[in-house]
Amino acid sequence: MRELMNVTFESGKFPADWVETERGCTFERGALRSGRVANVNVPLPGSGWRRLRVEVDVELQPTGGAALTCSDDKLTMAVDLKRHTHGIYFYGGLPLAEGKRAVPAKSGPRRVAFEYHDNRQSISVDGEEFIAGADPHSIPAAGTLKLQFWEDCLVHRVRILGDGEVKTPTFSYPPRRAKDFFLEVNVDFLDDLIYAPYDRGMFDQLFAEFARWGVQRCHWIHYGTHAEGFWDHIIGSDVNYRKTYENVGEIFAAAVQAAHAHGVQIVGMLRPLETGLYYSDGEGTPEFRARSRERRIGGGVSMIPRFCAEHPELTMARKPGVWGPDSENALFHRLDLVKEGDGPADFGVNDLRLYVSDDNVAYRAYEGTMEREELVEDYPVWEHTSSGGRPTEVTRRSRVLRLKNLNLRSKYAALYVEGRGSSFTNTLVNLIHVFGEKGEERRLTYGIMRRSPYLEPDVNGGLIAPVMDFRKVGIEFDTNYGGMGSACYAGDHMSRAHALDSYDGILAFARGKERGPVGRPSPSFPAVREWWLTWVRDCLDAGADGIELRVRNHSYHLAWSEFGFEPPVRDEFLKRHGVDIWQTDDFDKAAWRRLRGEGYTEFYRQAKRLCASYGKPLGLHVSPTNEMDPAIGAAMEIHWDWRTWLKEGLADSVTLKEVWPKTRLAEEILSLTRPRGVPVIFCPYADNAFRTPGGERTIADWIRLARDGGCDGYQFYECAAVIKGTRDGRVLMEQPALRDLFQREFGR
Fold this sequence. Notes:
Jelly Rolls; 8-stranded parallel β-barrel; 8-stranded antiparallel beta sheet; TIM Barrel; 748 residues; 32% strand
């Protein structure tokens, strides 16, 4: 293989053409020390490589670990030398391979190698292969690789080798004609309201600041008008919202007036699937329960528009017959915790603690009968289907922790362990089995994290979520850990590896299953599409200079593949394919995902016609997780057909949301937009850049990358990372160095 790159860090810096996407590292002893995390984009020479090998010489620190990921914009390979967990994933969510294997102890650096070769990917440590997976639709590695170093590891060298060079680029497009490279800013006003209410003077200050930066367009995330009700009970912001509404009336209309007064265009940015966060924070208080617009298993949800609460029949849905109360077992007499293999764990059956609750607020120790047993046996392997878990014909030698002779009748139960060694792992559908007097129970809802209380002010004027004992605040069911919602990634958590002794050390279950994810409307219903169009019309009537539509959202759930069986989907699938998807789990998943995506595409066409009638442009967002072959998977199990949107001319602009310039996906987007003169704007998440000093240098690198990568603009996402309102009516720019950067790059 040909050596493409051989980088050491003796100079105390990255190579000039590497781009930091998250800055947290230092340089010492001629090496890179990652700290909490260091992310860098590494440009690959040439047009592509059919075989690529990335070698990282890494050393564990006595007080830390060593974890690394290597990804292009399609595949991510990850290795954790501390927890001994390894995986290969499509778009960060759909596992090709996962495993747990201890890395032998060794002093000094060790070599981790990530290899892409035709349709096979693998990870090896010190020459020994640890895990491998097969990509059924392999493409040459090209453009940019993303390397992530975390857990405070020490990186001595990065070496990249390639073979089978592709001589002709996969995508081509004409050169960029426009000379202007412009700045946009995003405002998610829900976040800004955490700190203080706004009045008209503060709106004026905000857009005056944007004008000083040289902002051409502001993308303002719109959650509906006051009458829609989303704003009624915003966790952490509701009091400030009500005061703001008293001061200015409709939020978006006030923002439009202030933007235009300062010569800034304002775009109504809509996330149609962002219809309320799924958390039930505050369930322990009577005030929260009284204002919860919707109830679900585990608690109430307040951040739901009235339309969704009034029309639960229009949400995404499970199949009839697989949801509802627990169907057969009034009493559970046995719980099996099943490890993926038969090796020992860091804890045993006597370390398990069982808690029960009737309200998912206060948990108490289970005090009924119980026998404990730890054994190794051949245990049936289950798979996750659209109807839930089902046993296969395969068995696997597994370590089993069994609690039996129980008299468990409570609505909620939680198993808890003290350790966090990630030593007891299996896919969630296999990790726990619950038995009653009529056999194994299938209608269960799972929880893997504690509930968080409301955010509270910290000493610096910010907000924090205090750590609370789940026994006092309860458990969040059907919800994964924070950050970007599981709706952004293909697959679901039921089919992913989960360790009981990780995160909060909790594995809980509740009786029954919901019909669907509460408050998540289905694009397959015409009435839902018409409702979404009212949001478009509200923004246009308020004077918006355009509309943006973004699929990416913060919806959380553990089992997306169980939804998408609403009557319109079932009826149309039966008509086209002669298969009743209510009656079988074995059907053409690609055709089903495409069918579900047609509803959203129709909404996009309707939105385009509506915007055109006002003489306003319509833009779309593309994210890496929109880009999946529906035969393999899709975010929310819906095919987001952005290529059709572009080819039909529906988009007047494209925002690259977390699509990094010079990657394969960015190049394909430019090949479709550049001939049509459609501007492309780069929009990465910037908040993390300001966790450490010097965040403006990271933003400067991103602007350079966007320019060099052929984009027409850069969008700063988001305002609340650097601007804070105060209760005495001021709007403060907390990063003056960033203002200086923007003025140099974009000043009018």
